[in-house]
Amino acid sequence: MNPAYSVILFTTASGAGYGLLVWLAFSVVLGGTLPTGNLAATALVLALALVTTGLLASTLHLGRPERAWRALTQWQTSWLSREGVLALATYVPAGLWLLVQWLWPAAWWILPALLALLAAAGAVATVWATGMIYQSLPTIRAWSEPLVAPVYLLLSLATGAVLLALLQAGFATSWHVMAILAAVLLIAAGLAKWLYWRRIDAAPRSWTVESATGLGSIGRVRPLEPPHTQPNFVMREMGYAVARKHASTLRMMALGAGFIAPALLLLLAASLPPVPATFAALAATLGAAVGVLAERWLFFAEAQHVVTLYYGAERA
Amino acid sequence: MTALPLATEKKLGLVIDLDTCVGCQACVTSCKEWNNGGYSAPLSDEQPYGADPHGAWLNRVHSYEAGEGAKGRTVHFPRSCLHCETPACVTVCPTGASYKRGEDGIVLVNPDTCIGCKLCSWACPYGAREYDYTDGIMKKCTLCVDRIYNETLSPEDRQPACVKACPTGARHFGDLGDKESAVSKLVAMRGGYDLLPEMGYKPTNKYLPPRPRKADALVGGTTPAETIPATDGSPAERLFAWVDRVLSA
Ligand code: SF4
Ligand code: SF4
Questions:
Q1: CA distance A152 to chain B (A)
Q2: Smallest CA–CA separation between A88 and chain B, in Å?
Q3: What is the pLDDT of residue A153?
Q4: Nearest ligand for residue B204 CA
Q5: What is the tens place of the pLDDT at every residue in A146-173?
Q6: Sheet containing B206-208: which strands, arranged edge to edge?
Q7: B99 CA → ligand 2 middle, Å
Q8: pLDDT given for residue B1 in this prediction
Q9: Total number of domains constituting chain A
Q10: Is B136 touching A (CB cutoff 8 A)?
Q11: Whose CA is nearest to atom 2 of ligand 1?
Q12: Domain span at residue A255?
């Protein structure tokens, strides 16, 4: 599948934003008090900015962005529609929470906590819906894996935790728990991704060009003449394939630079004074960003669509 | 609505005969011609005279080789929307632009509500949907919905453009939900089959397999292509033999 940059940017940026929303909500609820006004407001603004950037990027991918509102209508069958509805719905508690945090920082704890919980639930549901858009497609073997949506969620939670740890260290408010949690989540996400890669590598590629054409009874089938001289939309969109060797190097890079190194840096940050801890967390954030972008690029580039059978692939 | 109809009154579709298709691309061009002015027009082309010409076409004809040696044969293979009974291309659509009609089972895209998210093209196993880069929306075979019910056309012309264009009669149109229809009988008689049945989309369109070859038609069989006749030794024949030798020297 063609790795469209708008979709990669959308899923990674909004994933991190939603993850940040979730951990911020937890810190409000578990802490029993509001995190210091500035930190909470900054974190909330950052979360909503990331989510909004992502959503805007995703509309760049549309042929008719001015009609995007129509995507909210078919939530009964379509995960893409559900994602849109959930994303918009999450703005309501998140926006109110921000308002309360801003205008009324001494508010009774229960009110922001309630709004935070609602926003967190919306965030988790939205990310899950994003994962399900891919997981529910029967035409792409690597995506109809049951690990797809869980990995989307884990990566969102991990990158969100990294961001919150960075902000907490930056504001010099107790960041140790968050840094350790982020490290654990990164390792868990890396592990889940590694398992996913093992599963897609081992999956039987049972769809054949013989079944696609129904000509297997005559013998082995191979293309003789293509239907068009230049790649058409189907080939441009679905024919993208990254070389195996290339992909496995990228996988290792993503795991090392994007998951393991940031996790170690965060553990280091948990034991440092605020200023060096902030730098360590910043390095971890950059590493995780590279890692998750590479992971998302691979998620598309490595996914083979069944239609490639008509265009020369023997199996899918 | 992107919910699928529980059942459709008719199952209109095509039956494509891989035995008689000669790969002439007449159906491809007549499809493009009709649909460039019909429902969901235009069918845009990008850089038609440039270095990388491509565009939205609703019907594509591949050519494959199947089998080896004497058993091997060339099969021309038209590919367009199969108007599946349970297609995910409809249910994944976030806007309801992609829908399946309850009355005849035709799968259509509403050009006025499609946002061009392309998700339906990802959900189609058959590569039947092509995005129109200029128009910003998805295009697909309409089964010539604007011909088959078109009362301004004479009755014999109320058929898909591709069916009308095929010079070998390799394309048949009809109701595959009606066991007594000509197309259903043809499918039963010739062993028509589904493409990629394991995807579970239940295509309406059926493909008729190439007929088995007669044993004596095989290369190396009993009718050698070039038998050299015995000579009778006449002067004319010796003259030709001499000319042949001189020319091939
Ligand atoms: S062939 Fe493709 S576009 Fe047509 S109904 Fe089936 S899944 Fe949908
Ligand atoms: S491209 Fe159009 S028809 Fe296809 S899923 Fe998106 S909105 Fe629906």
A1: 18
A2: 14
A3: 98
A4: 1
A5: 999 999 999 999 999 999 999 999 998 8
A6: B171-175, B12-17, B206-208
A7: 10
A8: 67
A9: 2
A10: yes
A11: B124
A12: 176-316
Which residues of chain B are within 8 Å of residue A311 when distances are taken between CB atoms?
A: 127
Give me the residue label for tokens 């390792």: A187
- % of chain B residues with pLDDT over 90: 80
- Residue at token pair 């805007």: A56
Q: Which of B149, B206, B210 is nearest to B181 (CA)?
A: B206
Tell me what ipTM this predicted complex has: 0.94
The rounded mean pLDDT for chain B is 93
A295 shares a domain with A182? yes
Q: Which CATH class is domain B12-248?
A: alpha beta
Residues A293 and A205 in one domain: yes
pLDDT in tens, B198-240: 999 999 999 999 998 877 555 555 555 566 666 677 888 888 8
pLDDT attached to residue A180: 96
Cβ atoms B170, B209 nearer than 8 A = no
Q: Which helix (H) or strand (E) holds B54?
A: strand B54-55
Q: If you count residue pairs, one on A and one on B, with CB atoms under 8 Å apart, how many are there?
A: 201
Q: Based on the fold, state whether residues A7 and A126 are members of the same structural domain.
A: yes
**Cβ within 8 Å, pair A218-B196:** no
The interaxial angle of helices A79-103 and A110-135, nearest 10 deg, is: 160
**Residues A315, B15: Cα–Cα separation, whole Å:** 26
Is residue A100 included in any domain, yes or no?
A: yes
- Residue B138 in contact with ligand 1 by CB distance below 6 A: no
Query: Contact at 8 Å (CB) between B92 and A137?
Result: yes
- The mean pLDDT value for A31-40 works out to 66
Q: Domain limits of chain B?
A: 12-248
> Which residues' Cβ are closer than 6 Å to ligand 2?
B 93, 95, 97-98, 109, 114-120, 137-138
B127 Cα to the center of ligand 2, angstroms: 14
| Full-model pTM | 0.91
Q: Between the CA of residue A249 and those of A198, A245, A261, B173, what are the distances in Å?
A: 15, 6, 16, 51
